[in-house]
From TrEMBL:
The keyword Transferase applies. Residues 12-60 form the Glycosyltransferase 2-like domain. The keyword Cell inner membrane does not apply. This is Glycosyltransferase 2-like domain-containing protein. It holds the Pfam family Glycos_transf_2. Gene3D superfamilies: Spore Coat Polysaccharide Biosynthesis Protein SpsA, Chain A. Transmembrane segments: none annotated. It comes from Pontibacter actiniarum. InterPro entries: Glyco_trans_2-like, Nucleotide-diphossugar_trans.
Amino acid sequence: MVKATGEPLVYIILVNYKNWQDTAECLESLFKLSYHNYKVVVVDNDSKNNSVTYLKNWAEGLLSVSYDEQFYTSTPISSSPISKPISYIHADSESIHTLNSIEKRLLLIESKKNLGFAGGNNLGCKLALAHNADYIWLLNNDTVVEQESLTHMVARFEVSKSKKEQLGMLGSKLLYYHTPNLIQAILGRYKPFTASTEHIGLNKASCTTFDNLKIEDDDYVVGASMFVSAEFVKEVGLMSEAYFLYFEEIDWVKRGAAKNFKIDICLKANIYHKEGAAIGGSTKENNNKSELSDFYSIRNRLIITKKYYPRFLYPVYLSLIAVAANRVRRKQFSRIPLILKAFKSFKKNTLWKAQID
């Protein structure tokens, strides 16, 4: 694609962890975008399954992606592979700082360790800011995007700028990959009393217009697709890496609000999400959630409560009893010590040394 003069420069950040197949399918859709002035950064979080080698082989045309034909026949996205080879830069997390310019459309970055969701995205954000990004799109690697999605999001932000609104972050319409006629979320809503979240628009028809939607103080942009301005990142800072996994987006929105940045939703940007695939969770039920996911979802609800909603800390402590009861009901008896470990980690404010390889 030819760089379009005058279009804002967008960096699209994907974090890969052992999921190169989903990442390659996501890349196939990204390289069909109608918007021209963008670059894609894939940060591999120390996968140890040769993910980067597979992605290089895909970019060189030596490896194809397996498609779910049912998905492509029920969406406007073409299943036809993009032409290869695709020029790319391959670097590690240390050598990227020596890049004077980025001429290639695709960058494959290998991290020396698993930095978590925030850390992996932050690595890409630092690179984007160092190379004159106007906008940054943090996108889950287990997504597929419609061709006009980026065009719509840039346009929404540019209109906001012309009106001198202080828009900092924009969400998308997230649809289920396996049931693309249903919405997963348009935004998230945090419930401080129980330190739990819910998805606004969950399981509504994809054509729902949300005419009366009012964004509330505890709403946030769901982490699967977060479109932010470079100004937002420069003023608010990068995502907090204290969480490792879960609740980072809520923290980011809260920090942005403290600097008067607002959030919004671009309902024209349709993103299809294979919910849970990127971290070993289930697309169906939470009872198949990995121990890694379970640990951080418990631990981080305590961290975010203490940071932003300290008056609810004791009710949230009590909610852990319900969490334990659910694990017993599901016969996940081995998860009870994990809950205690999460609580102790929160009290010590340390990361769990999880075995995640």
